[in-house]
Amino acid sequence: MSGVLAPPWSVRSLSEGEAALLNEVFGSALDVSRLRIWSCPILNWTTRRAFCAGGWLWPGKSLLLYPTKAALADFAGSRTPISATATFVHECTHAAQSQAGVNLLWAKLKAGDSDDSYRYALGPDSRWEGLNIEQQAMVVEHAFLCRRRRKTPYDLDAYAAVCPYPVACAGDG
User: Contact, 7 vs 38, CB < 8 A?
Assistant: First the structure.
C-alpha cells in the first residue's frame, strides 16, 4: 500500500484533507470533529480489516479501527490509493450511521458479514431504508468512486436516487 502508515497504537484526529473529503461526501450528516482513527496492531491478526466502532468504545466520538498495516497517516493524501480512500469512505458511512442513532453492533448482526451482506441492487423502487448498513456503505463507497470516474455497478443518477448524502448528487460526476 502506498502512503505513510500511522504509528502502531496511535489514535489521531482527521487531517485537513480527510475532513474536507468527508464534508464533500457527507455534508452536515457527519460531524468530522468527532472522528478518531486508531492504528490497532491486534487487527493485523484478527479481523485484518477496518471497522467503525461508532461511539461504544469512546462515548462522544466515532472511532475507526484500522489494522496497523492499513492505517494510513492520511487517507486523503496524494499518494493514497483510491481503493484505500474508498474503504475509508465506506467506514465513515458507518460513523454517519452511528451519529444518526443507528446501533452499529445490532445493525451489523442483522446485516451479517457474508458477501451477500454487501451486495445491493438499485432500481426504481429502491429506498435507502431498505438497505442494510453494509449495503448503504457500499452505495456511498460506489457513489464516491463513480464521482471520480471509476467503474461502478451503477451510474451517478442511480446512486442519487437512493443515497441521502451529497456525494451522490447527480450532476458533474
Answer: no
pLDDT (tens digit, 9 = 90+) per residue, 116-159?
999 999 999 999 999 999 999 999 999 999 999 999 999 999 99
pTM: 0.94
Domains of the chain by residue range = 11-165
For residues 131 and 90, what is the distance between their CA atoms, to the nearest angstrom? 14
Q: Map residue 117 onto helix, strand or coil.
A: helix
Look-up: residue for cell 453492533?
105
- Are 4 and 77 in contact by the 8 Å Cβ rule? The answer is yes
State pLDDT tens for residues 42-74.
Answer: 998 888 899 999 877 788 899 999 999 999 999
How is residue 40 annotated by DSSP?
E
Structural contact between residues 89 and 152, judged by C-beta atoms closer than 8 angstroms: no
Kind of pairing, strands 11-12 and 62-67?
unpaired
Strand 51-54 versus strand 35-40 pairing type: unpaired
Q: How far is CA 159 from the centre of its chain?
A: 15
Q: Which residues, including other chains, have CB under 8 Å from residue 111's CB and lie 6 or more apart?
A: 117, 132, 133, 134, 135
